[in-house]
Specification:
Layout: H1 2-15, H2 21-48, E1 57-63, E2 67-81, E3 84-88, E4 93-98, E5 105-106, E6 111-115, H3 118-146, H4 152-177, E7 180-182, E8 187-192, E9 199-200, E10 205-210, E11 215-222, E12 234-239, E13 244-249, E14 252-253, E15 263-269, E16 282-299, E17 304-306, E18 309-317, E19 325-338, E20 341-346, E21 353-357, E22 367-373
Parallel strand pairs: 1-22
Antiparallel strand pairs: 1-21, 2-11, 2-16, 3-10, 4-6, 4-9, 5-8, 6-7, 8-10, 11-15, 12-13, 12-16, 14-15, 16-20, 17-18, 18-19, 19-20, 19-22
Helix pairs in contact: 1-2, 3-4
Length: about 375
């Protein structure tokens, strides 16, 4: 027997000389298991010959039962609003008056600010005066023409002059209207980017209006999840800045991958009764992307590996001895893992007993005792 152990030690030393770490590790683990098996065999022979009793390792055992296994992914999101509008100036000019303040609630069509439109006001007044005269002339020419008095040319000239002034008045009034900055939606004044007496340029933003009762969360997920995320999936939403957490449903899932960053967007509409949630707040999303209602799962730390093999130790009673168990190295195939639990889909079955405490340094076929069974 001593020769056998010496031979095993020599094999270990030979394995240590290899350059490949994986091969070296596998050889060492195999030799360890063989040495442990030889040790157990020697102990059994000593006990059988009336020698000192074996000093069996104490372990805990756990019964494998099917459970609901859920896998989740975490992602960051941002609170956004479809009604987040930066209103541009439609004309250039000096800001005459700002009628609102930041944080104020406004209604659609409400006057927010106005540019200096004095030149348009004077033009409108002048055109209206000329239009009154042109209208009077036209009405008189029309009465005369209806009585076949005067020439048709005089009537048409009066009509054309009146209509030309009407069109001109409409044009100048529209230009004057463009000096007014009007709220396009109901909402809250979020930002004012102009100041009274300063110039505003046409096409540039002036006042931002946000409808805070119509918010959603937008997030971008890796393309590998595109077949696992669906409309209606439940998401746990956390908003760290206000210490708020709640469940919501995914309301939109894009089926197009962004070629630049290999992600796809999802949206989660927020209820208006959730409280003090504001646009641009950061969120943390926990999304259930996989559920197995009858999974065999074990704590992740119980699964050991040797090279490409995953294994854990199962236990069965030794025949004729109620207090002794024999452990077996059982190769397993693992699935998804989450929250320190891993799904096992091959290698162990329901009601199998696995070593949950004391599994370190066990050998295949080793005899053990147990104090706790579940």
């Amino acid at each position: 027997m001593k020769k056998t152990i010496i031979l095993l030690v020599m094999l270990i030393l030979a394995a240590c000389g290899t350059d490949d770490p994986q091969t070296k590790l596998k050889a060492l683990e195999d030799q360890r298991n063989k040495i442990n098996a030889e040790i157990e065999k020697l102990r059994s022979e000593i006990v059988a010959s009336g020698g000192a009793p074996e000093n069996h390792k104490i372990v805990n055992l756990q019964t494998v039962q099917p459970v609901v296994f859920k896998h989740f992914i975490k992602a960051q999101g941002t609170v956004v609003s479809d009604n987040n509008i930066l209103i541009p100036a439609q004309a250039s000019g000096v800001v005459k008056k700002i009628h609102v303040k930041e944080g104020e609630m406004v209604s659609k069509g409400q006057l927010l600010a106005e540019l200096d439109g004095a030149i348009y006001e004077r033009n409108i007044a002048e055109i209206k005066t000329n239009l009154e005269l042109a209208t009077t002339v036209y009405e008189r020419q029309k009465r005369l023409w209806d009585k076949k008095i005067g020439s048709e040319i005089q009537f048409l000239q009066a009509k054309t002059n009146k209509e030309s002034l009407e069109n001109r008045l409409a044009t100048v009034e529209e230009q004057y209207r463009l000096t007014k900055i009007i709220a396009p939606i109901n909402g809250q004044v979020d930002q004012i980017l102009i100041k009274e007496a300063e110039s505003a340029a046409a096409g540039f933003g002036t006042i931002r209006i946000v409808k805070v009762t119509d918010l959603k969360i937008e997030s971008f997920l890796s393309e590998k999840f595109i077949n696992q995320i669906h409309l209606g999936d439940i998401v746990t939403v956390e908003i760290p800045v206000i210490a708020k957490s709640f469940d919501a449903k995914i309301t939109a899932v894009s089926q197009v991958i962004d070629a630049k960053n290999r992600t796809f967007p999802i949206e989660i509409k927020l209820s208006s009764d959730l409280g003090n949630i504001k646009p641009n707040m950061l969120t943390v999303l926990t999304i259930n992307d996989y559920t197995n209602p009858q999974a065999i799962s074990v704590p992740l730390n119980l699964v050991q590996n040797s090279g490409n093999e995953n294994f854990l130790f199962t236990a069965t009673k030794e025949a004729g001895k109620d207090d002794l168990w024999i452990v077996k190295k059982s190769s397993v195939k693992t699935g998804m893992n989450y929250d320190n639990m891993v799904e096992i889909y091959d290698g162990i079955q329901e009601n199998d007993l696995i070593v949950s405490v004391g599994y370190q340094n066990l050998a295949d076929g080793q005899k053990v005792k147990t104090e706790v069974q579940q």
